[in-house]
UniProtKB/TrEMBL annotation:
Homology family: Belongs to the class-II aminoacyl-tRNA synthetase family.
Protein name in UniProt: Alanine--tRNA ligase
Gene Ontology BP annotations: alanyl-tRNA aminoacylation; negative regulation of DNA-templated transcription
Keyword set, alphabetical order: Aminoacyl-tRNA synthetase, ATP-binding, Coiled coil, Cytoplasm, Ligase, Metal-binding, Nucleotide-binding, Protein biosynthesis, RNA-binding, tRNA-binding, Zinc
Organism phylogeny: Bacteria, Pseudomonadati, Thermodesulfobacteriota, Desulfobulbia, Desulfobulbales
Amino acid sequence: MKGSEIRSKFLRFFEGKGHTVVDSSPLVPKDDPTLLFTNAGMVQFKMVFMGEDKRPYSKAVTSQRCVRAGGKHNDLENVGYTARHHTFFEMLGNFSFGDYFKEDAIRYAWQFLTRELGLPPEKLWVSVFEDDDEAFDLWEKVEGLPKGRIVRMGEKDNFWAMGDTGPCGPCSEIHIDQGVEAGCGRSDCALGCDCDRFLELWNLVFMQFNRAEDGSMTPLPKPSIDTGMGLERVAAVLQGKLTNYDSDLFAPIIAKLEQLSGKRYKEHNGDDTAMRVIADHARATAFLVADGVLPSNEGRGYVLRRIMRRAVRYGRNLGLTTNFLEQVVETVVVSMGAAYPVLEGATSLLAKVVRNEEERFRETLEHGLQLLEEEIAKLESASARILPGAFVFKLYDTYGFPYDIVRDIANERRLVIDEAGYQAAMTGQRRQSRSSRKDEGLRLREDGIKSLIEAGVATTFVGYDCLEIESEIK
Ligand code: ATP
Ligand code: MG
Ligand code: MG
Ligand code: MG
């Protein structure tokens, strides 16, 4: 079953159960400066769950575009290293706003996975929160789930909270056992292991309590449901693949990379990693730019810059030493534009932004890499393994190398970065630039005021009518 079929099957299934199909919201959350990017389906419904916004429906279903890079949920570092994580992915979710609760949520999920998608029940495992007897009992009653497949887990994995206070509750996750060959091979590998064997497919969150400042929890008057399932993971499983990157959702992008580099996927491990990272980052780039994020040195823009530059550096591992990212991003638009028309509207902007950023980075990339090679040679001749933090900072500050890139290279060469030294260099530079900015600011302000007075300008207080708008997230 193709990814696009799974997506529409999911939407139709829940529509058939009375859910309203709601469009994906943009990656930049509206009116929510606390969040870098939309990282789950529930983000656009946050206020509805809190009871502060009303919708004409009490049940919804979405296929939500998500980014987990930078910020609280950060999977940027996992990309290239696990088979299941992306920076950009699609989350399929069904939601109940005070309508149905645990029983239906569990029943629907089981029905969808085993009947609609035909996943084999004997491979499925379920986790519930350790104190959630209600969910445990409901799963026990589910026909077809083999005995001994319900595992109680702790707060870290199976309790969800919107923040320190507010709506929260236990969750229940459905996993599929992909067999020993997909895992870490340790004898104690079991559900909850961080490897890819027991692949987490679907998280069902039971929003049940309201947590107060003092930590006490009171039952919500209208418990709600929020679920999320990664489309790429389900697609890979249904297509008999052990990594998301081998699903049809990535095929056109990987094919483009094969064509551009003249290398074949699945022939050499290092090339595969590079192709996967670039494929993932090209998708994130396309969607972030289409949703209005531009590469910059701060906030959201800097996360995008890190993603793009990391892709360019991995391109070099494939032998791509001239601009290529624009063409990969174009393939993303072609393969995903039908499901996400926002991409098609951004084609020319995307081309320009990607070309500029790649060109700009290429001005310093080679020289920076050469310095890095010299530094590594020095370390190797001294049998040392630690890249000095001040040097890594210089690569960032002078050559525009985001930390992630140096970390990737350090991993490739079995070196470690002196992270504390890097942080110290960064803090030192910030302090210095802050104080010089202050001096410069004062001088400019004094000059400005003097020239205004000389010009006979008077000031008017406008603070009652307008506020200064914060444009960047720090
Ligand atoms: P994992 O433990 O594998 O990191 P998670 O517990 O962080 O996943 P949730 O926050 O529960 O994930 O999100 C709901 C679902 O979204 C997951 O069950 C998974 O199918 C999917 N998902 C989460 N993170 C990613 C990601 N980085 N890339 C692709 N799919 C993801
Ligand atoms: Mg995670
Ligand atoms: Mg998890
Ligand atoms: Mg989870």
